[in-house]
UniProtKB/TrEMBL annotation:
<keyword id="KW-1278">Translocase</keyword>
<dbReference type="Pfam" id="PF00005">
    <property type="entry name" value="ABC_tran"/>
</dbReference>
<keyword id="KW-0934">Plastid</keyword>
<keyword id="KW-0067">ATP-binding</keyword>
<dbReference type="InterPro" id="IPR003439">
    <property type="entry name" value="ABC_transporter-like_ATP-bd"/>
</dbReference>
<protein>
    <submittedName>
        <fullName>Sulfate ABC transporter ATP-binding subunit</fullName>
    </submittedName>
</protein>
<keyword id="KW-0547">Nucleotide-binding</keyword>
<keyword id="KW-0150">Chloroplast</keyword>
<dbReference type="GO" id="GO:0043190">
    <property type="term" value="C:ATP-binding cassette (ABC) transporter complex"/>
</dbReference>
<dbReference type="GO" id="GO:0015419">
    <property type="term" value="F:ABC-type sulfate transporter activity"/>
</dbReference>
<keyword id="KW-0764">Sulfate transport</keyword>
<keyword id="KW-0813">Transport</keyword>
<feature type="domain" description="ABC transporter">
    <location>
        <begin position="21"/>
        <end position="238"/>
    </location>
</feature>
<dbReference type="InterPro" id="IPR050093">
    <property type="entry name" value="ABC_SmlMolc_Importer"/>
</dbReference>
<dbReference type="InterPro" id="IPR005666">
    <property type="entry name" value="Sulph_transpt1"/>
</dbReference>
<dbReference type="GO" id="GO:0005524">
    <property type="term" value="F:ATP binding"/>
</dbReference>
<dbReference type="InterPro" id="IPR003593">
    <property type="entry name" value="AAA+_ATPase"/>
</dbReference>
Length: 238
C-alpha cells in the first residue's frame, strides 16, 4: 500500500496492483490496411508514457489492443509477466478514459465514480470511502450530486479519470484525454495528471496529437509512424 499525503490526504492505493506492460510483436490489419506492423514495446511499472504521431498512425489501435477492446492479428500483450492477450478488459483490470468523457448522463458524479465498484459488488462502506476519496482527489466534493451535463468539460474529464481509478486499475490508458478541451483547461489538467501520477504512480499510457503535451506530461515518448514505432525517447535520461 502507498499512502498519498499530498493531493489525496487519505487516499490509499494498493501498489501491488500496479503492473508493467510488454507489447510483443503486435500486428493488426483492417482489411488490406496495415494499422500496426510488428510493434514491440516495453512499458515499465509506474511509468507515464505518451504515444504520439500523425492521425491514423495506429496509436489508438495499440491502446485498444492493450486494453482488450480490440484483438490483434498477431503478437501478445503481457501485464507484469502474465499473457493477457485473450483476457477481456474486465479481467485485465484496466482503467480506460476516452476523449469524449463517456460518462453516464443519467448518473450523478458520485454514481459515475461508483459505477465500476457497483458492478463488482464492493462492500457499500468501502465503496463510499473510496468514492469520497476520489471526489477529494479531483476536487469536486461539492459537485457530487450533479449530473454530467451540469459540469464543465474539464470537470467531466476529471470525473472520467476518477471513475477509471476507482477500480484501482493495474494500468491506466488514456485516449486523447484532454483533446476536446480548450487550451487553458488542457494545461491545468496536464499539470494535474503529472501531479496525480507522482502521488499514485499507476503505469499510465496516453495518446496525444500534441508533442508539447507529451513533453510536459510524460517521462517517455513513443513516436508512431504508419503503424510502426519510429522513435523512443526516455525523457528521464535527457
Ligand atoms: N475498426 C476499424 N476499421 C477499419 N479501419 C480502422 C478501424 N480502426 C482504425 N482503423 C484505421 O486504422 C488506422 C489507425 O487508426 P488509429 O485510430 O489507431 O490511429 P491514431 O493514430 O490513433 O489516429 P488519431 O490520432 O486520428 O486518433 C487508421 O487509418 C484508421 O482509419
Amino acid at each position: 500500500m502507498i499512502f498519498c499525503p499530498h493531493i489525496f490526504n487519505i487516499y490509499i492505493y494498493n501498489i501491488k496492483n500496479i503492473m508493467s506492460i510488454l507489447v510483443e510483436n503486435i500486428s493488426k490489419n483492417f482489411g488490406n490496411f496495415k494499422a500496426l506492423d510488428h510493434i514491440n514495446l516495453e512499458i515499465k511499472t509506474g511509468s507515464l508514457v505518451a504515444l504520439v504521431g500523425a492521425s491514423g498512425s495506429g496509436k489508438s489501435t495499440l491502446l485498444r489492443i492493450i486494453a482488450g477492446l480490440e484483438k490483434p492479428d498477431q503478437g501478445r500483450i503481457w501485464l507484469s509477466g502474465r499473457n493477457t492477450t485473450f483476457l477481456s478488459i474486465q479481467e485485465r483490470k484496466i482503467g480506460y478514459v476516452f476523449q469524449n468523457y463517456a460518462l453516464f448522463k443519467h448518473l450523478t458524479v458520485y454514481e459515475n465514480i461508483a459505477f465500476g465498484l457497483d458492478i463488482r459488488n464492493i462492500n457499500p462502506l468501502i465503496r463510499d470511502i473510496r468514492v469520497r476519496q476520489l471526489l477529494e482527489l479531483i476536487q469536486l466534493e461539492k459537485l457530487a450530486n450533479r449530473f454530467p451535463t451540469q459540469l464543465s468539460g474539464g470537470q467531466r474529464q476529471r470525473v472520467a479519470l476518477a471513475r477509471a481509478l476507482a477500480i484501482e486499475p493495474k494500468v491506466l490508458l488514456l485516449d486523447e484525454p484532454f483533446g476536446a478541451l480548450d487550451i487553458k483547461v488542457r494545461k491545468e489538467l496536464r499539470n494535474w495528471l503529472r501531479r496525480l501520477h507522482s502521488e499514485v504512480p499507476v503505469t499510465t499510457v496516453f495518446v496525444t496529437h500534441d508533442h508539447n503535451e507529451a513533453l510536459t506530461v510524460a517521462n517517455e515518448i513513443v513516436v508512431f509512424k504508419s503503424g510502426r514505432v519510429e522513435e523512443l525517447n526516455d525523457l528521464a535520461s535527457l
